[in-house]
Write the structure tokens for this entry.
Amino acid sequence: MSRTPIIAGNWKMHGSLTFVKEMMSELATMLPAKINYDVAVFPVYIHLHEVINTKPEQVWCGAQNLSEYDDGAVTGEVSGKMLADLGCDMVLVGHSERRVKSRESNAEVAKKFAQALKYGLTPVLCVGESLVERQSNQTFAVVWAQIQAVLSLIGVEQLGHGVIAYEPVWAIGTGETATAEQAQEVHQFIRSQLAAKDVTMARQIRLLYGGSCKGSNAFELFSMPDVDGGLIGGASLTAEDFMAICREAKKLMNETQSS
Ligand code: PEP
């Protein structure tokens, strides 16, 4: 079964209103009206409104985080309800920078995933191991514990309404990319574990790779049978770099569709 790849740009804590306006106008010029892959961008909260109001129609907009609560006395947080009200389509949950710097636990991330679904947002569950964990052969255990927390809370059918991004922490922002084989090994592991619970869901769920993905390595990564696009940090910050990755997704889709 062929899954449509997603090219998702995580802008992290970068940009300004001028940056947003320029990026949206450049993407509007560079992106064809009809694309055979999906594109999303994830700006900081305060730039969401500008992106939503100026983005080309074929680009989805997502937040980088959401509260585990509906509303109330939670100073500084933003709820899924508010993101949906604003017009967001998606939201990242459990990015490793939040797991590490804000000490988000697997259980909290799972609650956020559930909140996103509650308000009709597509959650992108970020999972991945640190270098120490990889070196001590804990990759599968760490990644599965992160996914299992969501499964325990909402079950396999609900998990299937989201997207999973495998992002080895040692490859994020380091310039060191997992090899296509390393990415495939973990993606295949995730899909086969899910298939043991629900074959249809496992076939359909999109598994993105993230970690120093760029135009020069995107095709090789996206060609792997269980890699369905990428979550892109650094290379999503210029329209040129981001479009270079989008073009690789298009090339792959064109090849797949003509074969
Ligand atoms: C990310 O932060 O999700 C990411 C993949 O970053 P980078 O592409 O810069 O490694």
